[in-house]
């Protein structure tokens, strides 16, 4: 059950990142004069508000499910009940704050030095120190490695699992091969980097 919850949390973070990245990429591909209209449309059509309410529901449901140790088969009922509860205004949503920061960075690029570093995806495997080919994410701590590198370490070290080899990782929980999932965001970044170099 812990494995399912870790995968759920990892998926939730990936969805959050992908929505932000998609909006940012769309803005970067628009003409300068269309960017403000696009951002305004997202806000006026309540797309942003709907997503913030959805995210708040997920967060509340996950917190309740985890704190009460709700059985997996009952999680949908909890989620449906939380969906019906009143929501905070979007300005209180973490996603809304991040969205506004990213969009402000696009509208005012002179203020985005810090923003640019927040969007960097590391394509270098922390184990082999070479560019990843098949990135996988550890669902326990969310660090990414090349599948081959991490599998080799696991073969040599222990059948019971290993600690994250990422330097500076605070997680002390052992993980196994089944705790690794494909990292689609890094995979897309690798494909984009390859396309840019052609």
TrEMBL record:
Major localization listed first in the record, in broad terms: nucleus
SP-RING-type domain residues: 110-195
Entry-linked Pfam families: zf-Nse
PROSITE patterns reported in the protein's UniProt record: ZF_SP_RING
Compartments it resides in: Nucleus
InterPro entries, per database record: Nse2(Mms21), Znf_MIZ, Znf_RING/FYVE/PHD
Entry GO CC: nucleus; Smc5-Smc6 complex
Family: Belongs to the NSE2 family.
Protein name per UniProt: E3 SUMO-protein ligase NSE2
């Amino acid at each position: 059950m812990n494995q399912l919850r870790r995968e759920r949390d990892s998926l939730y973070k990936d969805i959050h990142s992908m929505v932000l990245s998609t909006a940012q990429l769309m803005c970067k591909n628009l003409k300068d004069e269309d960017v403000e209209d696009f951002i305004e449309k997202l806000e006026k059509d309540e797309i942003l508000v709907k997503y913030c309410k959805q995210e708040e529901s997920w967060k509340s449901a996950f917190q309740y499910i985890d704190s009460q140790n709700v059985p997996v088969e009952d999680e949908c009922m909890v989620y449906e009940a939380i969906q019906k509860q009143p929501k905070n205004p979007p300005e209180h949503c973490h996603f809304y704050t991040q969205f506004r920061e990213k969009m402000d960075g696009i509208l005012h690029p002179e203020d985005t030095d810090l923003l640019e570093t927040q969007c960097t995806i590391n394509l270098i495997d922390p184990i082999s120190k070479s560019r990843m080919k098949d990135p996988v994410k550890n669902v326990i701590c969310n660090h990414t490695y090349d599948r081959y590198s991490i599998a080799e370490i696991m073969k040599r070290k222990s059948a019971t699992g290993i600690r994250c080899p990422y330097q500076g990782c605070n997680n002390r929980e052992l993980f196994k091969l089944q705790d690794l999932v494909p990292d689609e965001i890094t995979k897309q970044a690798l494909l984009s980097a390859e396309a840019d170099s052609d």
